[in-house]
Structure formats: structure tokens, C-alpha cells
Amino acid sequence: MIEAIGFIWPSFLVAVCLVGIHAYFGIQVLARNVIFVDLALAQIAALGATVAFMLGHGAQSLATYGYSLGFTMLAAVLLAFTRAWAVRVPQEALIGVIYVVAAAASILLIDRAPQGAEHLKQILTGNILTSGLSEIAVIVPLYLAIGLLHFLLRHRLAKSGSLFWEFVFYATFGMVVTSSVALAGVLLVFSFLIIPAAIGVMFASTLTRQLAIGWVAGILTSAAGFAASFAFDLPTGAAIVCAFGAALALAGLAYPFIRGDRVAAVRTTLSAARWVVAAVVAGSAIELLIAPRADQPLLDMLEQAAPSLRHLYFTRAEAAAYQDAVETAERHRLAAEQLIEQERRSRTQGEAMDETTVQRISSFLKSYAEMRKGEQFVMGEVRARARERIRWAASPALLVIALLLAPLPWRRLFASVTR
Question: Which domains does the chain have, with CATH numbers?
């Protein structure tokens, strides 16, 4: 774990820097109601990087950064003009057009290029895990300079309608986005921009408090994303994006309890939870009735938590066959794990196995895997036949349970029926 922290912490510091500047710009973007301007500028920067890629420049080269920045400055000029056009056409629509055209142009450019798909993946998700102190030495002075400029010009930049100040805002924003996309990719940069700012705006009214909440939420969520990426061996950028989505969802769920009527929020939450559970149970009942041999996620989850539930509908012969398959599959799994541990211990102790032994272990592992699949097929077949046999009794019972779980006004319904 300590080694992992030593490996991840420089990349985490990069994420902290990105959260710091993007949370501020996110609040400004939300105030201007141009939510997707970051995506548009990020995609324009990615288009510049794609042009540089097609011309043979390296992904992290100075030339690629120059192309991206040049394309972004042109987009900043165009976005400054869209403020005036927004009298008749919403500015968000024009920003969307810029984004889709830039995305389509990027696809056209890399369609026939070698490793074009890998380049497109790099643009979208980036690879923040490879960034470190050298990148921090570049972005921190840039972000501090832009932050100081916005602080000194905050009153002028807040005024809308001036073409020059609109260009200054979008140009500085574009410089930040260009630097960030090269490190983190389009999707992660958008998450850094909007989600911490949205959480801050949700719970505070002043800019200072909004920034404080956004920074705390962004840093904690980034840490959670890095931890999930390490724990479950997931792509780091995608894991952090999903972590930000979960953070926004949790903030939305917590909002009524923090800023609203807590009693009403509790009632609404319990009612919604009961409706969800009732819908899941009713859906499982209908699926069991129509396709009893198909996968039944709810029943499988309940049986995994309490295996004794199978005895409610298994015959004695079915229970014996199922248990035998379970025990046999477990023996095969343990045998495979012993071989894997033997091979690992041989490598760590410096005693290399000969080629014949390695081939034998590989052959045994494949055999054990196939035998486990066979036992799992037996378990699935026994379970499917048993469910098919009891579906006409179990499905109505589950539907009754669903109706009882649903928060319906049973007293009023009963009273109206008995009148």
C-alpha cells in the first residue's frame, strides 16, 4: 500500500491542481450558462493535437501543445462572438455545434491513421497516472498567473457584452483547458470543471464558499477515484470520472436533508426507496413468469446471501445434485489456486521452472477451468429447471409482495372498496 501511495501521489497532486483552477472556471461557466463550453474548447484543443499527430509530432511535444493552443485561441475568438449571436440563437446551441464539428473533424483525420483508435482513446480519457512533478512545475505557474489575472480583472470579466473581455475570458480559459486536456483528457477535464463547481453552487451562495466546497469535494473525490483505480485495477481517468458522477449524485441526495425540509426529505426518500424495491420485485416476478430459465438477478442475489433459500423450491434430488456440483467446482478452484501459488513461489524464490513443468501447469489450469465451467453449467441447469417448475406459484407471490412494498394508500383503497 505504501508503495502504491508513493507511485500515485505525484499524479494526485496534478489532480489537485486541476481541481483548483477548474472549480473556479466551472463556477464562472455556470454563472454564464455556457455549461458545455469546456467540452467545446477541450475538443478544439484535441483537434489541434490530432492535426499535430497527423503531421508526425509526439503526443507530449511542444509542437503539439502549440497546435492545440492555436486552435483554442481561434475558438476563443469564435466563442466571444457567439455572445452577440445569442440574441436569437442560444449560445449553448452554438457551443454544441462547435463541439460536434471539432469531434467529427478529429474522427475524419484519424480514421485511416495508424493507431488512430488509441489516439482517440488518449484524447478522451487521457492518462493522468503518468503525469507527475515535471507537469506540476509547468502548470502551477500558468494556473497561478491566470488566477491572479482573473482576480485583478474580476469586475471587468464579470460584465457581459464587451467583445474584448469576452475574448480575454475564453482565451485564458482555453489556455487552461489546453494544458489540462494534454494531461487528463476531455472527459476528466469536463468532470473537474463542472462537478465540483456544481456541488459548490448547490450548497453556497458566495464565491468564496462555493470555491471552498468545490475544492474539498473535488480533492476528496479525486482521492476516491485514485483509490478505486488502484484497488480494482481500473483505468484511472475513467475511474475518477465515475467517482465524480457518484459524488454529484450523493450531493443531490444530501441536498434536501441539508438545505431543505428534513422530515419531508426522509418521507420522500423512504417512499422512493419503497417504489424502487417494489418495482424490482415486480420486474423479477414478471421475468420469472415469462423466462424462468433466464438469469434472475434478484433471486440469484438473495440465494447468494442466504443459500438455504434454495431448499424452499429444490427437490431432494435437485439439492443433492446442486451441492455436489458446488463442492466439485470448489475442489477444482482450490487445485488451480495451489498450482498458481506454486508457480508464483517458484518465481519469487528465483527457482525457474523448466519448460515442461510450465506447460504441465498451464495444461492443468486449463483443465481445471473447463471442469469448473462444467460444474457451473450443472448448477445453472438444476436451478433453471427448479425455477421453471415453481414459476406459476412463485411469480404471483412475488407480485403480492411487490404490491405490499409499494407505498400505496391501502387504507383509503380498502375503505372505498368496502363502501
Answer: 2-260 (1.10.3470.10), 267-408 (no CATH)
